[in-house]
């Protein structure tokens, strides 16, 4: 892997860095406090083409790749994770399944508006009784032989981007049949927002990511055309495993951004804050904390970029994506804890970005596969389990 960014990737990094500091940073704290989705910021991200970064130009994308998406996510999360997860879920979970598994017609119908940010897509996998063990999906989709429609019943929980004013669709996994030995056949089906019987609960009250949208979804005899099946019937399980493998790289880039943001804020504060007659950054105890934080952010960056470059090159990347996600989320939590400590009492005040980073870090060890699940994947790749 060449660890230098190409001129195009470096230009993208600078553009998103500037946007994050000039547009996101001054406004996002208020949205976060009000638990409000930042439509104006998301609209601007759409205008910049961020939602179309890894998609082909013929569908309205920017013709970039997963590396480009990771770079944008890292720079956004360096300043704020709510906008970063809105982008991550919109691209990796909302649009990518349609890009990877959709028919030509589905791509033409959905991708241009998803790429421009006019609409957001969501991915409904998790259920109240099936998270890590997503094969335990209970939502069902039964084909109505008379009309060819799918009739969907069930509940999904914790679904990002699923209830905003601009949410256009949710791709849900549902049991559509059984194998001869009784195992569930899971398929993915596109459900447009506003379909009768599809209801979206009020936003959750969350510990962090408070300017992002997360909801519980209910499907009560929801009817969608047979043509809304995404990919082959019964392949939904394999599809979401692929989506989650890629998504882990994106979450890892986001976690790296948070870890680096903690360094940025700590360096700034350590040069300003005085105690016992000196700036606290003059004390070796504080210097060593920040040096360790920088080491972790740097190593996390190498890790997600390694996984992304393997994905872009068409090489196997499953283990590297799990390693990157596990490592970067762990160090994001570490760095957020230390950055808060360096800020003293001010670190516990929500007006300081590190307080937001502290609250936003924990979910990184849970979403898109918990740290335990990453360890299971790594152990499997090492041949320890089947
Ligand atoms: C803010 C937020 C946004 C989210 N967005 C989405 C989304 O857009 N789409 C979506 O589908 N989901 C989404 N999720 C769901 C998320 O992916 C799940 O919460 C996560 O996968 C864990 O599932 P669970 O909550 O059911 O925990 P469980 O699976 O019940 O796990 C509970 C604990 O048990 C551990 N555990 C489980 N099995 C094992 C095992 N075999 N060995 C060892 N330990 C084990 C887990 O690691 C964890 O520590 C979101 C969640 C949150 C909080």
UniProtKB/TrEMBL annotation:
Cofactor(s) this protein requires: FAD
PROSITE patterns: ACYL_COA_DH_1, ACYL_COA_DH_2
Domain Acyl-CoA oxidase/dehydrogenase middle intervals: 122-222
InterPro entries: Acyl-CoA_DH_CS, Acyl-CoA_Oxase/DH_mid-dom, Acyl-CoA_Oxase/DH_mid-dom_sf, AcylCo_DH-like_C, AcylCo_DH/oxidase_C, AcylCoA_DH/ox_N, AcylCoA_DH/ox_N_sf, AcylCoA_DH/oxidase_NM_dom_sf
Ranges for domain Acyl-CoA dehydrogenase/oxidase N-terminal: 6-118
Pfam families referenced in this protein's UniProt entry, alphabetically: Acyl-CoA_dh_1, Acyl-CoA_dh_M, Acyl-CoA_dh_N
Protein keywords: FAD, Flavoprotein, Oxidoreductase
Entry protein name: Acyl-CoA dehydrogenase family protein
């Amino acid at each position: 892997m060449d660890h230098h960014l190409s001129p195009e990737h470096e230009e993208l990094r600078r553009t998103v860095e500037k946007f994050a500091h000039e547009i996101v940073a001054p406004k996002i704290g208020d949205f976060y406090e009000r638990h409000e989705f930042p439509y104006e910021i998301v609209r601007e991200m759409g205008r910049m083409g961020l939602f179309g970064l890894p998609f082909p130009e013929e569908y309205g994308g920017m013709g970039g790749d997963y590396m480009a998406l990771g770079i944008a996510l890292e720079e956004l999360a360096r300043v704020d994770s709510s906008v970063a997860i809105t982008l991550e879920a919109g691209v990796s979970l909302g649009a990518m399944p349609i890009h990877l598994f959709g028919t030509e017609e589905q791509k033409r119908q959905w991708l241009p508006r998803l790429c421009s940010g006019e609409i957001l897509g969501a991915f409904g996998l998790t259920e109240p009784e099936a998270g890590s063990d997503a094969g335990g999906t209970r939502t069902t989709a039964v084909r109505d032989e008379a009309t060819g429609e799918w009739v969907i019943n069930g509940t999904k929980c914790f679904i990002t981007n699923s209830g905003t004013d601009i949410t256009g669709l949710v791709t849900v996994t549902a049991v559509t049949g059984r194998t001869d030995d009784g195992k569930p056949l899971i398929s993915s089906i596109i459900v447009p927002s506003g379909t009768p019987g599809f209801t979206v609960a009020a936003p959750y009250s969350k510990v962090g990511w408070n300017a992002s949208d997360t909801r519980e979804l209910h499907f009560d005899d929801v009817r969608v055309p047979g043509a809304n099946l995404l990919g082959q019937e019964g392949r939904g399980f394999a599809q979401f495993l692929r989506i989650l493998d890629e998504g882990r790289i994106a979450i890892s880039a986001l976690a790296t951004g948070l870890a680096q943001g903690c360094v940025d804020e700590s360096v700034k504060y350590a040069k300003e804050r005085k105690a016992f007659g000196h700036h606290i950054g003059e004390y070796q105890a504080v210097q060593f904390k920040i040096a360790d934080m920088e080491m972790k952010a740097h190593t996390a960056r190498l890790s997600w970029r390694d996984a992304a470059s393997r994905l872009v090159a068409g090489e196997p990347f499953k283990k590297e994506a799990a390693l990157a996600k596990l490592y970067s989320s762990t160090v994001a939590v570490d760095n957020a804890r230390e950055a808060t400590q360096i800020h003293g009492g001010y670190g516990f005040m929500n007006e300081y970005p590190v307080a937001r980073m502290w609250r936003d870090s924990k979910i990184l060890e849970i979403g898109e596969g918990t740290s335990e699940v990453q360890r299971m994947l790594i152990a499997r790749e090492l041949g320890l389990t089947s």
